[in-house]
Amino acid sequence: MSEHVRYTQAGRLMAIDTVLGADVLLLERLEVEEGINRLFTIQARVRAQRDEVRPDEIVGTAADISLTLADGSQRVWNGLVTELHEGPIVTRGAR
Hints:
single chain; mainly beta; 3-stranded antiparallel sheet; two-stranded antiparallel sheet; 1 helix
């Protein structure tokens, strides 16, 4: 992937941290459902900066997602990755 631009999550409003390491996945879209007396669910769309991310590398592992709010504070969710779907390469080598 060295011939492609490398992106970083530093300074972005949304970020994801996984066992894959820093900036391997870039958070593109986030949908969160929370409710009283129920577990939250999160669907995150990410772009991978690697040619391939195998499900056995990430499914079943922990992920931390952070969202910077208007006042500068952060909202953080900790959870488990339960699914991985691969899409086509869309831009500058990111999948």
